[in-house]
Sequence to fold (246 residues):
Amino acid sequence: MATPHILQTEQDRLMFASLFDHPKDGISKSRGVEIEEKIEFLESLAGKVSNRRSRRWLNDRLLMELVPRLNAEEIRGLFAPPPWGDDVPPSLFSMTNVVEWDNFRNIDMDKEASIIESLEISSSKRRDHQDADKVAALTAWHRVDSRTREALRRCCLTDLINGYEECVRSFVKDTGNGDVLVMHVQDAFHRLLLHGVCEFYNLVSTTVTQSKGKKMTRIRKKRMGSIDPPNITLCNFLKMAKDGFW
Fold:
């Protein structure tokens, strides 16, 4: 006599058999029919338990049935990253001469502290030097008239400003206090940019009208003495300002 553990009813088949199992008795149904029968059977069980529990169980069961089983390659892909699957690539430590790493690991503690301290001092000096350059550039920028600063910010004539700046920097570095630099700039906006460059480098610039309406700009150093030009040029300062550095 067959026992209940041996008998398999249609409900048992719907409950425990997967949609992706191949039937052993040779009788096969379309996958669509199998899904519909499985859904109808699972929904009929909703009234036997609380609504929330049945709906949660139903959703979990449907997800397990509708998602196909993973093959061996897909399962292996889930555990491919180290330390489960593929071999770990050799590190720089393992590929380097062991003696060299031994010298690194066995360095004297006092010598190590001295090296770290020297690196920190060097980094601090470099940072202080950079801060000094920034302060000098900002000081030079604030010497420029507000109207001229706005024109320099909005100006797209980078090559023109750079040409003026190269002439002015050479004049500041290579000439004495009594020398005068003369430039003939006829465009009014271009002269405004030139005056801004001169103010950035703490110079006095005046424009006079010659015969036939020609303009001439005379540039000279102030009587108080020359000031070293900032290491950050005006063009670099404007570029850094546009990039949001300041």
Remarks:
- Residues 1-8 have pLDDT under 50 and may be disordered.
